[in-house]
Inverse folding.
C-alpha cells in the first residue's frame, strides 16, 4: 500500500521544464542574447554622458561621480529640452565644454581608476561651475534682468585667471552650494565629496596667504589692510582721471570700478563717522553718479537719482561734525525736495538704460525712495524735529510704517527679497522704538536673504548689529553701527 501511494504521488508531479533553447553537442545554449533598447537620457551629468554610464541625476553631485571621485559637470544643459535659454547661452560662451576641451586621450587614469587632470584643468572646471551654477543662479535672482545675461568672454580676464584666489573663491562657492543643497553643516565632511573640496580650498588659501605675506613685507600699500586697498584703488583712479573719463572697453574693469564705488558709498552709510572711508570723498557727487549710472547695478538696484542722494547725505553727515546743523538746513531742505520729486512709477521711462516693465521694479524703486528719505532723517538727527519742520521733511513714523508694509510684499518675490539688505538696515533703525512686528519682519527678511547660497553672511552680520541695537534700547543712527563693512 505504501509503495502504491508513493507511485501515485510521483505521477502527479509536474513534468520537468523544457530546455531553454537549442543546444549544441556539448550541451551549451545557442540562443542569441537580445539587447534591450531604451531611449538615451538627455538630462544626465556631462561626466556620466562622456563615460557612457547611466546617471542617477542627483543634485548637486551625482552618485557615480561621488563613487569614482570624478568632477561632476552638472546637468547636460546643451541637449536638455527643459534647459533655460539663460543657462544654455551662458554655458555656451563663458565656458568651454568638457568634451571639446579635453578628450579622453589627454585624461589618463592611474591604477585606481581616478582621473589625472592635465595642467590648467582646475581653471576649466572653475569656469564650468561658474557657467552651470553660479552665473545662472545670479541671473535668476536678478530683479532688474530684462533679457538673458550677456556672458563676458574669457579674453576679458587679463592673465590672472589661474590665480589661487580665483580658484579658492570658486571652490568656496561650491562648498557653500553643496552644503546648502544637502542641508549639512559648513564643515569638512565626507558626504558628497566636500572633504576633498575643503582640502583643496585649504591648499589654495595657504598659497594665497604666502603671496599676501610677501606683499605685506614688500609693498607698503598693503600694510593698512582693507582700508589701504580701497584708498590705493581710489588714489590710482584719481591719478589717471578715471571718474571724469571712464574707459568702456573692458567690462571687467567697469564692474570692478562700480563695485568698489558702491561698496564705499553704501558702506559709509552704515558706518560711524569716525570710522568711515574718507578717500571716497575725493570724488564729487557727479563723478560718483557717473560711475554708478552706466547701467543699473543689479546687486544694489537703487535708482541713480536716489544713489546720488545717499552720497549727498554721507557728505552732510560728515559736514555736521564740524559745523552747526542750522547752517546746513538749506542743503537739507533741497535734498528732501529732490527725494520727494522722484517718481517710482515713471523711473522706467526716464532712466538712461533699459529697465523691465514689471510691478516688481516699481516696488523696489519706492522702497529705496522711502529708505533714502528715512536714512536722511535718522543719519542727520532730524527724527526729533518739532512740528514746525519744513513740509519737505518726511514724517518718520508714517514713512517707517509704509516701508514695513512694502517690505512685507517683497516676501512674495525672491528677486525682490535678495536686494533688500540696505533698506532693511534703515528700517531696523527706524522701528527700534516702534511695534515689535516691524522688527520681527526685518529679522525675517534678513534671515531669508542669508539663506541664499550667494549671500555670504552679509545679511547675518546686519542682523547681529540690529539685534544688539534693539536690546540696548537705543534709537540713534550712530549708536547702531560700528566699523566699515560691506552691505551687499
Amino acid at each position: 500500500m505504501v509503495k502504491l501511494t508513493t507511485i501515485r504521488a510521483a505521477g502527479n508531479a509536474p513534468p520537468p521544464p523544457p530546455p531553454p533553447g537549442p543546444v549544441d553537442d556539448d550541451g551549451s545554449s545557442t540562443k542569441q542574447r537580445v539587447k534591450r533598447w531604451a531611449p538615451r537620457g538627455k538630462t544626465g551629468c556631462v561626466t556620466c554622458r562622456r563615460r557612457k554610464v547611466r546617471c542617477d541625476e542627483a543634485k548637486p553631485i551625482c552618485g557615480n561621480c561621488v563613487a569614482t571621485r570624478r568632477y561632476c559637470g552638472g546637468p547636460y544643459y546643451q541637449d536638455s529640452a527643459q534647459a533655460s535659454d539663460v543657462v544654455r547661452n551662458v554655458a555656451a560662451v563663458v565656458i568651454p565644454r568638457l568634451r571639446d576641451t579635453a578628450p579622453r586621450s589627454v585624461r589618463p587614469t592611474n591604477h585606481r581608476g581616478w582621473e589625472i587632470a592635465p595642467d590648467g584643468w582646475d581653471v576649466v572646471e572653475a569656469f564650468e561651475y561658474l557657467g552651470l551654477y553660479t552665473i545662472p543662479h545670479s541671473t535668476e535672482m536678478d530683479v532688474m534682468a530684462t533679457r538673458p545675461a550677456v556672458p563676458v568672454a574669457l579674453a576679458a580676464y587679463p592673465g590672472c585667471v589661474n590665480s589661487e584666489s580665483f580658484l579658492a573663491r570658486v571652490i568656496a562657492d561650491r562648498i557653500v552650494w553643496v552644503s546648502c543643497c544637502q542641508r549639512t553643516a559648513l564643515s569638512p565632511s565626507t558626504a558628497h565629496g566636500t572633504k576633498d573640496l575643503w582640502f583643496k580650498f585649504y591648499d589654495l588659501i595657504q598659497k594665497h596667504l604666502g603671496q599676501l605675506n610677501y606683499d605685506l613685507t614688500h609693498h607698503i600699500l598693503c600694510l593698512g589692510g582693507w582700508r589701504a586697498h580701497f584708498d590705493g584703488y581710489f588714489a590710482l583712479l584719481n591719478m589717471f582721471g578715471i571718474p571724469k573719463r571712464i574707459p568702456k572697453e573692458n567690462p571687467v574693469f567697469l564692474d570692478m570700478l562700480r563695485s568698489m564705488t558702491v561698496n564705499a558709498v553704501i558702506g559709509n552709510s552704515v558706518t560711524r563717522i569716525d570710522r568711515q572711508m574718507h578717500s571716497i570723498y575725493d570724488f564729487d557727487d557727479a563723478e560718483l553718479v557717473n560711475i554708478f549710472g552706466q547701467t543699473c547695478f543689479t546687486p544694489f538696484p537703487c535708482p541713480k537719482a536716489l544713489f546720488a542722494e545717499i552720497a549727498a547725505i554721507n557728505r552732510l553727515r560728515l559736514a555736521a561734525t564740524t559745523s552747526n546743523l542750522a547752517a546746513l538746513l538749506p542743503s537739507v531742505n533741497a535734498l528732501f525736495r529732490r527725494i520727494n520729486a522722484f517718481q517710482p512709477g515713471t523711473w522706467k521711462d526716464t532712466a538712461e538704460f533699459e529697465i523691465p516693465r514689471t510691478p516688481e521694479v516699481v516696488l523696489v524703486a519706492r522702497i529705496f525712495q522711502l529708505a533714502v528719505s528715512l536714512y536722511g532723517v535718522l543719519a542727520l538727527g532730524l527724527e526729533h524735529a518739532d512740528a514746525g519742520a519744513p513740509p519737505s521733511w518726511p514724517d518718520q513714523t508714517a514713512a517707517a510704517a509704509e516701508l514695513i508694509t512694502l517690505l512685507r510684499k517683497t516676501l512674495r518675490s525672491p528677486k525682490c527679497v535678495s536686494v533688500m539688505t540696505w533698506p532693511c538696515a534703515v528700517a531696523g533703525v527706524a522701528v527700534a522704538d516702534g511695534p515689535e512686528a516691524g522688527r520681527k519682519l526685518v529679522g525675517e527678511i534678513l534671515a531669508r536673504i542669508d539663506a541664499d547660497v550667494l549671500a555670504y553672511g552679509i545679511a547675518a552680520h546686519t542682523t547681529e548689529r540690529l539685534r544688539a541695537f534693539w536690546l540696548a534700547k537705543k534709537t540713534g543712527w550712530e549708536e547702531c553701527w560700528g566699523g566699515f563693512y560691506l552691505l551687499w
Observations:
- The first helix runs from residue 2 to 11.
- The chain has a mean pLDDT of 75.
